[in-house]
Amino acid sequence: MQDIAELEGELLSPVAAAGDLEALEAARIAALGKKGRLTLLMKGLGALDAEERKNVASALNGLKDRLGAALLDRRQALEAVALERSLEAERIDITLPARPESSGRIHPVSQVMDEIAEIFGAMGFTIAEGPDIEDDFHNFTALNMPPEHPARQMQDTFYLRPRPDGSRKLLRTHTSPVQIRTMESRPPPYRIIAPGRTFRVDSDQTHTPMFHQVEGLVIDRGIHMGHLKGVLEAFARAFFEVEAVKMRFRPSYFPFTEPSAEVDIGCLRQGGELRIGEGQDWLEILGCGMVHPRVLRHVGLDPEEWQGFAFGMGIDRIAMLKYGIPDLRDFFEADLRWLRHYGFAAFDVPGLSGGLSR
């Protein structure tokens, strides 16, 4: 059998010389792998007589322990070198001067959503959410839209492929289904707003296939049209940041409210400028009404006991009005130049105490 001291030198030499983990692994396999030199010697112990086997086995086991320790030490040293190189390559020079200002901007839609949430949150409303993909019941039937209603037609609604039972999912055409899901999920009273994305087949300067809406719902005992008027007046004053706002409620029709109204606010158009709260012109901003009794019955509420109002507005539209944005399609163009002009700094957090649009 080969001299143990000589063998030890031959096995430890490539371990000490290994320049990386791959070379170290090759040295380990050459010594301790299935066909490694030390492994084969230990397998041959059975051919020796008892006394010789005892002495050789002790020497080989001692060599195996020393070789394992050498492999571990070399691995730790190589890993430390690799870590140091990685840290050096990934080092950040914190002495570089900071940029004068952040290049990121908050999108006007996100900013206006935060403004709306701030205003209605101060009135005690909570935010409710629902799925973008809806079923016929929540999007139409529960909102008192009969099968022949024009809004159900293909030219107005994005329908998905029919399911095996013939029913079809759709992209919600308004956030009103969130009101239905909220009323199904827990007992009244309710005081919620539901902001989110909606989808309709339409595209021009003031319409896009995907847009943003916010709808509000209040259900309680003894609710009447005066409460609705008060909430909307408070919202208009806070959102447009004017002391007094002239409003009018025009009779209208929505299938899910009765009576229904369109809400206009007074404005002045002069020299290409729009001023809210001044002048003799009128500007439509939202639709509203008292929740239809059939809607209440669809969610298991007795309209003789519970009453309420609902309202809805286009977030993109009121953002255009407040911040003078001429074309709705620009909201979705991902043009950084447009965003730098109309966007908001990250720290422009809306707050009623300091002014929403500071």
CATH topology assignment of the largest domain: BirA Bifunctional Protein, domain 2
State the CATH architecture of the largest domain.
2-Layer Sandwich
Percentage of residues assigned to helices: 25-40%
Cα(first) to Cα(last) distance is 89 Å
For the sheet with most strands, the description reads:
8 strands, mixed
Polypeptide structure, described:
- The protein is 39% helix and 20% strand.
- With 358 residues, it is of the alpha+beta class.
- It folds into two domains: 4-89; 108-342, Bira Bifunctional Protein, Domain 2 (BirA Bifunctional Protein, domain 2, 2-Layer Sandwich).
- The strands form two sheets. Strands 1, 4, 5, 6, 7, 8, 9 and 10 form an eight-stranded mixed β-sheet that branches. A two-stranded antiparallel sheet has the order 2-3.
- The protein is elongated, with a radius of gyration of 37 Å.
List the helices and strands and how they pair.
Layout: H1 4-17, H2 21-32, H3 37-43, H4 50-89, H5 108-122, E1 126-127, E2 133-134, H6 136-139, E3 170-171, H7 176-185, E4 190-199, E5 210-220, H8 225-240, E6 247-254, E7 257-270, E8 273-276, E9 281-291, H9 293-298, E10 307-314, H10 315-323, H11 336-342
Parallel strand pairs: 1-4
Antiparallel strand pairs: 2-3, 4-5, 5-10, 6-7, 7-8, 7-9, 9-10
Helix pairs in contact: 1-2, 1-4, 2-4, 5-10
Describe the structure concisely for a colleague:
The chain has 358 residues and is an alpha+beta fold. 39% of the residues lie in helices and 20% in strands. The longest helix has 40 residues.
